[in-house]
């Protein structure tokens, strides 16, 4: 197979607003190194990590909600998810679905032609469970907002599915994040899980994956997005931020809150947890700084778990769930790569319920 030497790519040139993403039509196509594969990208999902990394929101100098725009001050030492500076220019995008078209030394050539989705967590081969030795696809190395991308062979997971490339590109980040949260919180069929922001990519994944575990699920979303959330199968849907959450819940007893929202409503979520309840978090799109009454925390024997780096088995398990039809994509919109800026603006404005995908 003869491959082009250059490719179309949307390249992030530095931290800041969406104008930092620049389209190139003749960017050098990468070659797979040892133990790597070259993937022709069919589609790549958009997620909060892309937006927050580009804007520098992860820096402790930023205290605002996720805006997707430039911030007045971004710390030079901690502007990314891992707390270390990012090398620019960088091709972002972690959620790739595509086809392996070439392999590097040490990879079986029989993999060429495989349809794959990517595991975004770049682990040390000799220490896959060491969180301190992990990077992220589209952050610590170039990702999928391009026609071609390379990744370690172990991070390209073969998949057999009738779903489209765009549909499969919704799973990697959102669903692995959600499964990681539920795993950390040890959610089982005995739990009732409250999910703020259920209309988003991770929120919708939380609904489906918590239901898969047999839990009772209560979703929270703006009224305009209830119809979309309902298709995911929650047991109850509430407004985005009820004035009296306890009354809105009625007799429901919340044992787990699975949250990617944070913000000013956060104390209300903690206040309705049952004794011995668990709070698990993997985001703070409404604001990272919250008020915590430590008396509620310790007198109710609550457990808080942060969730970022997932365990190695999560993505292979998700592939199995997809192939078995246990979970379904929540694809809301598809944009051409040339319109990635517009896609991010729509994503930030929450114009769509579910996931947004770009195609090269």
From TrEMBL:
Residues 16-358 form the Enoyl reductase (ER) domain. The keyword Lipoprotein does not apply. InterPro entries: ADH-like_C, ADH-like_N, ER, GroES-like_sf, NAD(P)-bd_dom_sf, Zinc-ADH_QOR/CCCR. Keywords: NADP. The keyword NADP applies. It holds the Pfam family ADH_N. CDD domains: MDR9 (cd08274). SUPFAM superfamilies: GroES-like, NAD(P)-binding Rossmann-fold domains. Gene3D superfamilies: Medium-chain alcohol dehydrogenases, catalytic domain (3.90.180.10), NAD(P)-binding Rossmann-like Domain (3.40.50.720). This is Alcohol dehydrogenase family protein. It comes from Falsiruegeria litorea.
């Amino acid at each position: 197979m003869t491959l082009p030497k250059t490719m179309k790519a949307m390249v992030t040139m530095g931290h800041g607003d969406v104008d930092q993403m620049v389209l190139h039509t003749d960017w050098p196509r990468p070659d797979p190194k040892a133990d790597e594969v070259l993937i022709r990208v069919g589609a790549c999902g958009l997620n909060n990590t892309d937006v927050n990394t580009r804007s520098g929101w992860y820096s402790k100098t930023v205290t605002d909600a996720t805006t997707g725009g430039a911030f007045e001050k971004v710390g030079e030492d901690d502007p990314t998810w891992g707390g270390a500076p990012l090398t620019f220019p960088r091709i972002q995008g972690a959620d790739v679905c595509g086809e392996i078209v070439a392999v590097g030394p040490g990879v079986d050539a029989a993999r060429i032609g495989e349809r794959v989705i990517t595991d975004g967590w770049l682990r040390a081969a000799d220490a896959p469970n060491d969180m301190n030795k992990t990077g992220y696809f589209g952050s610590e190395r170039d990702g999928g907002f391009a026609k071609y991308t390379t990744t370690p062979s172990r991070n390209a997971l073969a998949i057999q599915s009738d779903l489209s490339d765009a549909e499969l590109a919704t799973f990697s980040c959102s669903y692995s994040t959600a499964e990681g949260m539920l795993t950390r919180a040890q959610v089982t069929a005995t739990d009732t899980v409250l999910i703020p922001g259920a209309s988003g990519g991770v929120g919708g994944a939380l609904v489906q994956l918590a239901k898969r575990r047999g839990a009772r699920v209560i979703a929270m979303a703006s009224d305009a997005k209830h119809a979309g959330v309902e298709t995911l199968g929650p047991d109850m849907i509430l407004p985005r931020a009820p004035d009296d959450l306890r009354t809105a819940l009625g007799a429901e007893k919340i044992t787990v809150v699975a949250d990617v929202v944070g913000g000013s409503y956060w104390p209300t979520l903690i206040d309705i947890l049952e004794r011995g309840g668990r709070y698990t978090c993997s985001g703070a799109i409404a604001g990272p700084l919250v008020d915590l009454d430590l008396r509620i925390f310790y007198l109710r024997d609550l457990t808080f778990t942060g969730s970022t780096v997932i365990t190695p088995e999560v993505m292979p398990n998700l592939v199995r769930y997809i192939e078995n039809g246990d979970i379904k994509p929540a694809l809301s919109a598809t944009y051409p790569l040339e319109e990635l800026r517009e896609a991010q603006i729509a994503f930030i404005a929450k114009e769509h319920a579910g996931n947004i995908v770009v195609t090269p």
